[in-house]
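## Example record

The block below lists the input lines for one assembly entry, exactly as stored, with component labels intact.
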Amino acid sequence: MTVGLEITGPFAVITLNRPDKLNALSFEVLRKLDARLDEVASSSVRALIVTGAGNKAFCAGADIEELRHRQLMEQKRGAELGQAVFEKIARLPVISIAAINGYAFGGGLELALACTLRIVSANAKMGLPEIRLGLIPGYGGTQRLPRLIGEAHALDIILTGRTIDAAEAERIGLANRLVDTDVVAAAMAYASEITRFSVPSIGFARDAVRRALDLPVAEGLKVEADLSTLAYRTADAEEGLAAFVEKRKPEFKDA
Ligand code: COA
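Predicted structure tokens for the full assembly:
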């Protein structure tokens, strides 16, 4: 199975499973990942964790052998497929965390960029090396990286194609956390810090922040006013406010 899916309690764990090729994203892997995301979207999990099989790589990017000798339109459709699959992750009803356990290059890093958050192990090495192949990133990297870490860092990474280590990734905000323990277990613990809250409110907060990056501030503030009012209308908000006043822990029901 090139892309595994395991449900562990409230979490789905998707594992790219092609360790002999450092979990490189062949088109078959992309299509299986797409199908796995549909399974996650229709399940009742509260968060998704994405990782790579083995202890060497999260994902070494698009399958370079497959990229050779392609017609231009075939290549364009391939980029659109990669973009669509990663956009599906970004738009899942639940948060996603990339558990980066080694190399995350090219499409591998772009996959991690589509996740809500990123956690890296100490041996993680990341980059967008496409420029070294005479290419440029095509699965969302040129759009998501500057939004995440700013134009200057993004241009540095994309134009030099250099490798970023775990410490630098954390320093520049590419990784939210750096851990020296098992990265999938750490990702689950990280997800638990969020999923104990109301899933609808988590979704509203994530959507408000995401829209902020595409809209002028005045428009974004309108979105925030709408989404915060929607959150206020949930039973969970009523419960959260009541629990504070009654000095007890809230019991959220995702409603
Ligand atoms: N596509 C296809 N196969 C890949 C791959 C990719 N992106 N990345 C690694 N592999 C394959 C290698 O060809 C090798 O296969 P083989 O054993 O059949 O020869 C196997 O995975 C192991 O890779 P190897 O290069 O021997 O491991 P390494 O530890 O020496 O180097 C990397 C690791 C990640 C530095 C190196 O594999 C690399 O630079 N990969 C390409 C990264 C990249 O440019 N990604 C963007 C693509 S657009």
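Residues 21-22, 24, 60-65, 103, 105-106, 129-130, 133 surround coenzyme A (CB under 6 Å). The longest strand covers residues 3-8.
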